[in-house]
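Quick one: structure for this chain?
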Amino acid sequence: MGRKRLSANLLRLLSSQNGIEIVGVLTDSHLQGSPTAAAAKELGLPLYTFDTALEAMKEGRLKYDLGLSVLYWRKLRDEFLTVPRLGTINFHPALLPEYKGTGGYNLAIMDELSEWGSTAHYVDASIDTGEIIEVDRFPIDSSVETAQSLERKTMQALEPFAQRIIARAVEAQAKLPTTPNIGGRYVSRDEMEAMKQIRDGDDVEKKIRAFWFPPYDGAYVEINGQKYTLINRQLLEEVAPKDSTSLFAGKANA
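Got it. Here's what it folds into:
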């Protein structure tokens, strides 16, 4: 179960390993050009939507030992929780138990953290609340990161981390040791979107970086009912054409 290029890379890796049988791939049915769907078709693997997978499990046509959720967007329920005898491992691109739900990259910058990472945990009936297998951490400088740059670094670190955890689970053929997933903050998508509005007293520069993730709307001001995303000089220079000949590009020397 997954989306984005990371899931496709892991799918290709697992399909090449002896002793691992992939019985199905569940990915974004609402997106065109899903990298995970393309990889599944390339490898000749059965492709499911959430509903068709659930139906197949209810009818006994889909059985598996271990589920893997890599950046999958839907809450798992019913047979997704009961069919796999070894459970389902989710790879959450944030630190648990502290940062549940969405908006992790944004909050890492807003909270001025010095480290970030990903968490492997078992899936239960709620969101990001299952027992923690391991947290993988790496240092960051939140004074210069954007949500986009932090996402990129997290994906780079998450791939080898996921490979290692999956290898452990396959070798053990049993549930891995865990620690409780207690406390922390859950942020919904609506709450994350509301955080983007710049209000009196906000650190505007920090908020611009914390919500910079084009093509999505970033930190914004609202004027006459219209939202306007803000950009600072650093980001403007990053998105400018590298071959720009503007007299005002970059810093001028006296």
